């Protein structure tokens, strides 16, 4: 019986060995820096906003989807750090602006989904009109690719120009269309390309 004692390891030693094995693993995890926020696609952000919009009004319908420029997380190839959508409810006679952002930022932007106050809505006031969610089949990333091919010469001449993205349904085209904009807004842009948001086809160039 005494010979068996030589193979027994005291309990304090076992606990010490286990602690030594876990210590490096904990240290490795602590060394990993947090991942920086990354831009997201329009359809991803839209889905998050639409879920909230339907909880606000079951008949909520999109009127506009647009990118929001963030210095901390700039747009890249059709993905952006923040997006906004305007939803309208015919039953309530109200419109509501909802945003989705990957960070807290200026301009009343909050991380995740954030809804602004309700506004009166009695119907289209400008060229844009509500469009069915099912018509939104093409993401801004795909629209960006089409625009870069059609606007290759302009893109080469302006490689550092920021780009923005606007989705609307107007009488000009049968389906909602992406407007891929070279510049921060339609009003300040000298060049943009329209892409069908249902089919992905090139529609027109605006100069």
Summarize the structure.
The chain has 4 helices and 10 strands; from the N terminus they run αβαβββββααββββ. With 207 residues, it is of the alpha+beta class.
Note the total helix count.
4
Q: How is the largest sheet built, in terms of strand order?
A: 6-5-4-2-7-8-9-10
State which percent range the strand residues make up: 25-35%
User: Mean pLDDT score, rounded?
Assistant: 89
Tell me the span between the first and last alpha carbons. Answer: 95 Å
Largest sheet: 8 strands, antiparallel
Please report the total strand number as a whole number: 10
Q: Could you say how many structural domains there are in total?
A: 1
The value of Rg in angstroms is 26 Å
Low-confidence stretches: 1-9
- The helix content is 25-40%
Order of helices and strands: HEHEEEEEHHEEEE
Question: What overall geometry do the principal axes of the alpha carbons give?
Answer: globular
SSE order and pairing:
Layout: H1 11-31, E1 40-41, H2 42-56, E2 61-68, E3 79-80, E4 82-89, E5 94-101, E6 112-120, H3 140-150, H4 152-157, E7 163-168, E8 177-182, E9 191-196, E10 202-206
Antiparallel strand pairs: 1-3, 2-4, 2-7, 4-5, 5-6, 7-8, 8-9, 9-10
């Amino acid at each position: 019986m005494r010979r068996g004692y030589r193979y027994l390891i005291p309990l304090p030693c076992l606990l010490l060995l286990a602690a030594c094995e876990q210590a490096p693993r904990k240290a490795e995890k602590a060394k990993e820096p947090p991942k920086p926020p990354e831009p997201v696609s329009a359809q991803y952000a839209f889905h998050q906003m639409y879920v909230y919009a339907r909880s606000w009004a079951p008949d909520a319908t999109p009127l506009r989807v647009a990118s929001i420029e963030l210095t901390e997380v700039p747009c890249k190839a059709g993905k952006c750090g923040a997006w906004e959508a305007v939803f309208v409810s015919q039953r309530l006679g109200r419109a509501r602006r909802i945003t989705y952002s990957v960070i807290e930022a200026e301009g009343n932007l909050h991380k995740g989904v954030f809804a602004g106050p309700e506004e009166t809505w009695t119907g289209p006031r400008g060229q844009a009109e509500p469009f069915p969610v099912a018509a939104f089949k093409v993401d801004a990333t795909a629209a960006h690719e089409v625009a870069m091919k059609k606007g290759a010469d302009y893109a080469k001449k302006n490689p550092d120009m920021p780009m923005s993205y606007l989705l609307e349904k107007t009488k000009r085209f049968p389906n909602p269309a992406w407007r891929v904009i070279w510049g921060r807004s339609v009003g300040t842009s000298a060049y943009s390309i329209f892409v069908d948001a249902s089919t992905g086809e090139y529609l027109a160039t605006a100069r």
